[in-house]
Amino acid sequence: MNLKDLQYFYDLCQLQSYTEVAKLHKVSQPSISYAIKRLEESFNCKLIHHDPSHRSFKLTPQGQILLKHTEKILSEVISTRKEINRSLAQYSTVGFPPIIIQYLFAALNEKDKFDFLKRYALSVVAP
User: Which domains can be identified in the chain, with CATH numbers?
Assistant: First the structure.
């Protein structure tokens, strides 16, 4: 079992389509099927019940349990990545008089200002 398999499982539950999940992740449809099979082998149970007559599926009770925990796991992974990225950010402190800040930002368009502020932690300290 790996995180990618859990992500595929989660997205499959949300999108209800192997094809759409494959498109979303830019992989083949059999890759999604194989990921689900790996999860089923890992947990030693069926997670999805397929209804071939309607080309649909529904989660087994075990699949519902896995979905509930997968949501928490993926949320924690996202939070962890954000926290690690913040810890790796290197900060420098540079002081400018207010008139210089106005001059620098006047030359930037709104998108560039947003990109700049998003990339760098900017604290404005008034004298």
Answer: 3-88 (1.10.10.10), 90-127 (no CATH)
Q: How far apart are CA 40 and CA 45, in angstroms?
A: 5
pTM (two decimals): 0.68
Q: Count the neighbouring beta carbons within 10 Å of the beta carbon of residue 21.
A: 25
Q: How far apart are CA 84 and CA 87, in angstroms?
A: 5
Residue type, 115: D
Per the DSSP assignment, residues forming a β-bridge with 59 are 48
Residue type at 74?
Answer: L
pLDDT at 24: 96
The DSSP output letter for 55 is T
> How does pLDDT run across 37-80, given as a tens digit for each residue?
999 999 999 999 988 776 789 999 999 999 999 999 999 999 99
Given a contact cutoff of 8 angstroms between Cβ atoms, the answer to whether 114 and 46 are in contact is no
- What type of residue is 32? I
